[in-house]
Amino acid sequence: MAEIEKKPVKIMETILRDAHQSLIATRMPTSEMLPIVDKMDQVGYHAVECWGGATFDSCLRFLHEDPWDRLRKLRDGFKHTKLQMLFRGQNILGYKPYADDVVEYFVQKSVANGIDIIRIFDCMNDLRNLETCVKAAKKEKGAEAQIALSYTLGDSYTLDYWTSKAKAIEEMGADSICIKDMAGLLLPYEATELVTALKEATSLPIELHTHYTSGVASMTYLKAVEAGVDIIDTAMSPFAMGTSQPATEVMVKTFQGTPYDTGLDMKLLEEIADYFRPYRDECLDNGLLNPKNMGVNIKTLVYQVPGGMLSNLTSQLKQQHAEDKYYDVLEEVPKVRQDLGNPPLVTPSSQIVGTQAVFNVIMGERYKMITQETKDILAGKYGKTTDPVNPELQKKALGDTKPITHRPADDIAPEMDKLEKEVAAYKEQPEDTLSYALFPQVAMDFFKYRDAQKTGVDASKGDKEDKAYPV
Question: Which of 8, 41, 156, 438 could pair covalently with 94 via S-S, beta carbons 3.0-4.6 A apart?
């Protein structure tokens, strides 16, 4: 029997970003990360994901931390390992499209503060929404631009669809491609087909990202690796499984002694797991980690709804005292998705489709109330949808307004000068302007908090009339 050539699979570690975003709502503070950085740096990971996604918002809003400061501290500690972030294309780390000059400056500053690999995605898989970001990354020496395709199911999402996107991504000048399976919908044998097809279509490295929500993720990784995938995303076991990724140690052990052996040191990984275990226990005790997020949710495969979207739906229904409508809403989701051109369900399209489905059910009449975001999708403001939208609904929502067919950001005037003026009084570093651009109110509250820490004066407690402050 001929020996299979060695093809070690690379590991991208998610514990410092997606793992805790998925399981404990992105609440891991920087102080929990720093003591273990030195050990993590010795592992030989392909990269460690530690920034972007919801970490930016969460740092400012809930942890009273400067996200830029977190990045600099992590960069300081990781001497040999590439650092990776998740970037929502023209939406950066927010929920709306920003002007090109803001996108370009954000990329520049992310790299300057320590990011090596930028994973860029768009909720519509509209590559036009990624162009500015990829070009900006290519200008930065040593930075890698990875484009992630948001994986989803539907009649239009054929192997031809994925391979033609992959070819277009290669032409755009990206350095690698990620299959971003945010809902855990990619089944093992489908992974074999998809990876094989992508490998034939492009010479770029292929990375696979999935979540354990539906219970198939590690089998999917096994088949994908056998089919030639280059990199898989995993999480250290204390924050693995459930709505997170498969466990790093389990995947490393699985491939030991095979042609795909990662070569990573199990003993070192065990020490890192030991470090994170007490924090996991603390999160279980204080309710931050809900055991419900740890199980298999087979509804994910039935309704194709990502885990995070399921929890959003339940909380929206709870607020409306309509929890008995849960299954009606789940059945409404695919109908709304079809009306809106079958977009992949990922931030922000998942929230938009979910919220509209809730309104449709609660109002007792479909589209009696149409949200602004639903109107924006129908108006082309999020980009081109995979399938045509429902023309009657489009007419109802937009009236005589013509939907746009060009790149949405072409309509957004440069914003940096205006933002610089608005933030001037609070600015301590160039990056503050970007924090303010993405989350104006939250950033302002943080800047005031930061000032109060330095001066011992809390501006929010001030007497606005007499301009007097407590000391």
Answer: 438
What is the predicted pLDDT for the residue at 304? 79
| Length in residues, the chain | 471
Distance in angstroms (rounded) separating the CA atoms of residues 236 and 249: 7
Residue 394 Cα to chain centre, angstroms: 29
Check pLDDT > 60 for residue 471: no
CA–CA distance, 15 with 21 (Å, rounded to integer) = 9
* DSSP H or E stretch at residue 435: helix 431-438
Torsions phi, psi for 202 (to 5 deg): -145, 155
Q: Roughly what angle, to the nearest 10 degrees, separates helices 431-438 and 100-112?
A: 130
In one letter, which amino acid is 91?
Answer: N
Relative to beta strand 47-52, strand 117-121 is unpaired
Q: Return the closest-CA partner of residue 15 out of 218, 230, 247.
A: 247
Query: Distance of alpha carbon 48 from its chain centroid, rounded?
Result: 14
Q: Is the pLDDT of residue 467 over 50?
A: no
Angstrom distance (rounded) from CA 253 to CA 265: 10
Q: What are the start-end ranges of the E strands in 122-223?
A: 144-150, 176-181, 206-210
Residue 373: HSE in the Cβ half-sphere, 13 Å Cα cutoff: 16
Rounded mean pLDDT of 240-263?
97
Q: Quick one: which of 34, 169, 77, 176 has its CA closest to 118?
A: 176
pLDDT, tens digit, for every residue of 253-293?
999 999 999 999 999 999 999 999 999 999 999 999 988 88
pLDDT of residue 4 exceeding 90? no
User: Residues 17, 49: contact at Cβ < 8 Å?
Assistant: yes
Task: Give the model's pLDDT for residue 312.
Answer: 78
**In this structure, what token pair is assigned to residue 436?**
């303010």
Bridging pattern class, strands 176-181 and 206-210: parallel
Contacts of 301 (CB under 8 A, 6+ apart): 184, 185, 214
Q: Are 210 and 242 in contact (CB under 8 A)?
A: no
Residue 222 has pLDDT above 70, yes or no: yes
Residue 305: what pLDDT? Answer: 79
Q: How far is CA 117 from CA 48, 120, 142, 402, 444, in A?
A: 10, 9, 9, 38, 29
Reading the block at residue 200, the tokens are 């034939």
How does strand 10-13 pair with strand 231-234?
parallel
Average pLDDT, rounded, for the chain: 94
CB 258 within 8 Å of CB 252: no
Tokens of 4: 């299979």
DSSP 118-141: EEEE-TT--GGGGHHHHHHHHHST
8 A C-beta contact, residue 60 and residue 443: yes
User: How far is CA 391 from each of CA 341, 361, 365, 394, rounded to the nearest angstrom?
Assistant: 10, 21, 18, 5
466 — pLDDT class (breaks 50, 70, 90)? very low
